[in-house]
Amino acid sequence: MPHLPFHILYSDIGGVLGTNGWDAALRRKVAARFHLDLEEIEPRHHLMFDSYERGYMSFEDYLRRVFFGRPRDFTIEDVRDFTYDQSVPWPENIGFFQRVKTANRLKLALISNEGRGITEHRIQKFGLRELADFMVISHCVALRKPDREIWGLALRLAQAKPEESIYVDDREMFVQAAEELGFRAVHHVSLESTKDRFRSIGLEVD
Length: 206
Known about the structure:
Layout: E1 8-11, H1 24-33, H2 38-53, H3 59-67, H4 76-85, H5 91-103, E2 107-112, H6 118-126, H7 128-131, E3 134-137, H8 138-141, H9 148-158, E4 165-169, H10 172-180, E5 184-187, H11 191-200
Parallel strand pairs: 1-2, 1-4, 2-3, 4-5
């Protein structure tokens, strides 16, 4: 295999390796499951979400403030467990990233906006300890994409330069932010499109 200019592959978690941990679609599911009014929930969510993803509160505290502003006939644990159950790994995608890592002799790290509780559950459920060499999760470092410093921290941890690093994300805005920093950035739309993009930059994907 010819020498490649890349040292490390970085990837998002939700939308690339599995479903998102907590997003608008999942809040709609929670609202439907527990017969809640989204117009009541969403303003409270927007007030609390940045603090939650930066690690300043637990998932239970976030749920308490967002969903339990008044008495309910269900518990915080009910909402938490339902939410956790909605996280679904995509084994084909996870296996692909493992093969690319091995075949191209790359380090692999994860950069993700996720809060406490959800992260730990998903890392175990998706088997991410076995996949990643290290992780930069927003609640652990008090930084969130698109903060430029979260990518800077990931580079310093790997002792890598942007131009020798690949970054994969399903959110185009984050892909653009990584590109501006000098990463070879890949917008993940589907597994096949990411395979094609990897081939085009010289990675072995099969």
